[in-house]
Amino acid sequence: MQKRLGCLAPQGLVAAGLTVVAITLVLLLWGGSLFSPGPLNAQAGAEPLGGVRSHAEVGGRCSACHPAPWGAETMSDRCLACHVEVQGQLADPASLHGALDAAGGVRPCFLCHGEHGGADAPLTRLTGDGFPHQATGFSLEGHARTAGGDDLICADCHGQDVTEFDPATCAECHGEMDAIFVQAHRGAFGDSCLACHDGIDRYGAAFDHDQLAFSLEGAHDTAGCAGCHANARTPADLRSAPQNCYACHQEDDAHGGDLGQDCAACHAPQAWEEATFDHDTLAFPLEGAHREVECGDCHQDATFGGTPADCYACHQEDDAHAGELGQDCAECHTPQAWEEVTFDHAQTAFPLDGGHLDVACGGCHQDAVFAGTPAECVACHDEPAYHAGLFDRNCAACHNTAAWSPAEFDRAHQFPFDHGEEGISPCATCHPDRLADYTCYECHEHRPAEIAAEHRDEGITDFEDCVECHPTGQEDEAEREGGGD
Hints:
The chain is mostly helical. Helix content is 25%, strand content 1%. Helix 6 (168-177) packs antiparallel against helix 7 (179-189). The longest helix is centred in the first third of the chain and has 21 residues, at 10-30.
């Protein structure tokens, strides 16, 4: 029995040879079309690349795009050989291809640019899967679904051409979710959404302003963004917003700039009206009743800078002295109470002592007149009639401030004041009518005729002036003096 040779049989070898010849003829006649999955794109470019205007013009030359399997060259190398402008873009991170290259290295062109779809098929076909969209500057992390809840596809934002994007698409889509917010947001920040938003929504609900140098406190936390970031159109505009209070609150400054621009020295973010100004840090600290005075009482018309600090500027209308004591109110008055006067009379030319200390101011200063008040005693103490001008109105010669009476008269008055049994006798006891005249008859029950007879019996003829012989009131003084005339 003859052994079988299988494919090595003469018939098999002949069949294999015929097959090889047939394939070779097809390749020679129709190129690589035998293995092509479909016709190439026929869209012609403006300028020829690699000698052709469209991929369809390469004919059946598969090797124009597909290198030999055993070589080191890749299909992307063949693409760049014709598309030299893309080669230049790869070196520029600002370009789309450069950004994609920087995001993940050189990527095979066929991941985004397919072929063999027909003469009119698009050369750029993206499904979103695997495409590093964040490399374009906009992440799809927050755009997985449309406003209607459907899965987001490229056409939802780019239409039929993924290389094109209309910024109005953002407003249209987000307007379906919240039309009122979008309208207000566009009015405040314009229509260039991509200038600020990167798809991760860095300035959205998750944005934490407290992580910045200017944290939001009090009423700032509820203020609209545009209130501080007016006309902002880019992140740089947002970051350039001034952080000092005055930049925003200048129009609210009731002080007209008189107190400077450091609003935080008095105001807090909780409420603009709740000022906590510490007046004690100024050259005019508030004491006593001044602490209860409204700011506007001293700062008329909300004018603060240049407000006078002298008492008279505010208390001129309260000056009962009509300016006669000058304008240094603090010399007598204190902030505790205007009526509590602490004037030290001892600092004047007329210090108060004795009984004067208990005299009310008005006792000497009639009608609240202070300047020019006389310092002589007679100005307040009228001379008694019985003085009759004997002492030249020099009250202090006899009287002192301890008490107006009794008087301490010791000038040439030899007769003792304590003559009698009741201690110090009043002047009027001996001088009932006037001090120039005196009498002993008020106390001694003498009759002038008896006194005259008695003295004549003793040989005394001059007996009208009793104290001449009785200088101390003693009866035997005349005998010691020798008696007689």
